Amino acid sequence: DAREQATAAGVEDVATTVHDDESVTGGIRSCATEVDADCIVVGTHGRTGLDRYLLGSVAETLIRTSPIPVMVVPPVDQTDTERPV
Q1: Average pLDDT of the chain, as a whole number
Q2: Radius of gyration of the chain (CA)
Q3: What is the pLDDT of residues 59-71, one digit of tens each?
């Protein structure tokens, strides 16, 4: 769970909230506004091309519509983890 990982990494004041909205991005924006967030951090699957247009992009929509700055974190490339050289 993300909350447990954040707490284990030393992040303080981890909160969990639930918002009911017509869209994921609307829920994220309303939550961020409610807690007076300085920044919204969101992950992405890094989809490109037709997949992005068919599936939509929460990260892209937040970037375009949020009055609060948005930081997008790309997926970890498993090939970039530690390995023998």
Answers
A1: 81
A2: 15
A3: 889 999 999 999 9
> Under a CB-based contact definition with an 8 Å cutoff, are residues 67 and 32 in contact?
no
Tokens, residue 6: 């954040």
Query: Rounded to an integer, what distance in angstroms lies between the CA atom of residue 22 and that of residue 5?
Result: 29
For residue 50, what are its two tokens?
A: 């037709």
What is each CA distance from 27 to 12, 15, 17, 41, 46, in whole angstroms? 23, 15, 10, 14, 22
| CA dist., res. 27 & res. 9, Å (int) | 26
Q: Can you read off the two tokens belonging to residue 78?
A: 């498993």
Q: What domains, with CATH codes, occur in the chain?
A: 2-76 (3.40.50.620)
